[in-house]
Amino acid sequence: MSTDCPVGVAHQVWIEASISWFIGEFGRRPTREIVLPSPELSDGRFTGTPEQIDGMVEVVCELMRIDRSALTVELFDREDEDEEAARKGRRAVGHFYVRDGRTVIGLDVTEASDAAYLIAVIAHELCHARLLGEGRITADRKDHERLTDLLTVFFGFGVFTTNAALRFGETGRGFSVQPLGYLDERTLNAACNDGYSRLGYLTEREFGYAMACYAWLRHETEPDWAGDLDPGPRAHMRQGLAYLSRNARPGEFPTRRTATVSVSVRVVPKADPVWLGGLYLMFEPSEWPPDAPGHRAL
């Protein structure tokens, strides 16, 4: 296994500096507990009813320390998607905004029966609430969507958001999940010549290294939850841990002394809804280069 960092220097510095900033904002406590899929998510009992979705939102709010009573949840389906976004090969699966001073998140119910996938979307939108809604950053910050993806890892939902980051589907549909076994995702895609869809704003390698940094902060060099990650990001995570073990002291990052994150806060209340963040499912062609302590169950 290579002991090089799985991401480039600029991305490495951004990930490490951002996580260090998270510690300053939220403390180390959120990194002590990872949320893992429970058997109940795949036994057929979760069908994505509005009541079940609301219950899931409530659980995720509790784990993220968000007041559910201060949150409005809107459900929409694919028919409501923005036509221009659809033409560009993407569709909204979640959104976040503030209306009359109240936080609103929207969730696409098209694939709501896929509980693990839905949790990934909920986690992303609620991380918007922790960052944008609490005035820690503004939507003017160019990396605010990527920072939101990264915060899902810090709050323990990285298994869900990492696994949802790259999904495969039949060429004509583009939405169904295909079994991956132990093949690398891009290799499987090239072999099957199918299209795939990507959720979120971090790449598979970035998620993998972020998960390595998460484990490193928890002093886990061989986390027992690694098996819950899909094969591709799991390999990147293990490579990242090998790199960190050679280049940093336990619980610290290699670039910790030089990297900084500049954050400006500007809160402007408005009466009308203000679109602040959205999560999109992006559809890509099949010609992707093939080389291009404790936990919670949810």
Explain this structure to me?
Strand 3 and strand 4 form a beta hairpin. It is globular, with a radius of gyration of 18 Å. Helix 1 crosses helix 8 (204-217), helix 5 (144-154) packs across helix 6 (158-164) and helix 8 crosses helix 9. The protein has one domain (9-285). The chain contains nine helices and eight strands. Strands 2-4-3-7-6-5 form a six-stranded mixed sheet. It has 298 residues and is α/β, with parallel strands linked by helices.
Key terms:
two-stranded parallel ribbon; alpha/beta; single chain
Can you describe this structure in just a few lines?
By secondary structure, the chain is of the alpha/beta class. 38% of the residues lie in helices and 16% in strands.
Query: Which class do the helix and strand fractions yield?
Result: alpha/beta
Count structural domains.
Answer: 1
Q: Main β-sheet, in a few words?
A: 6 strands, mixed
How many separate helices? 9
Residue runs with pLDDT of under 50 for 5 or more positions? 168-198, 257-275, 280-293
As a percent range, the share of helical residues equals: 25-40%
Please count the beta strands (DSSP E, at least 2 residues each): 8
In whole angstroms, the N-to-C terminal distance is 32 Å
Shape: globular
Main-sheet strand order equals: 2-4-3-7-6-5
Mean pLDDT across all amino acids: 76
Question: What is the beta-strand fraction?
Answer: 15-25%
User: How are helices and strands ordered from N to C?
Assistant: HEHEHEEHHHEHEHHEE
Integer-rounded radius of gyration: 18 Å
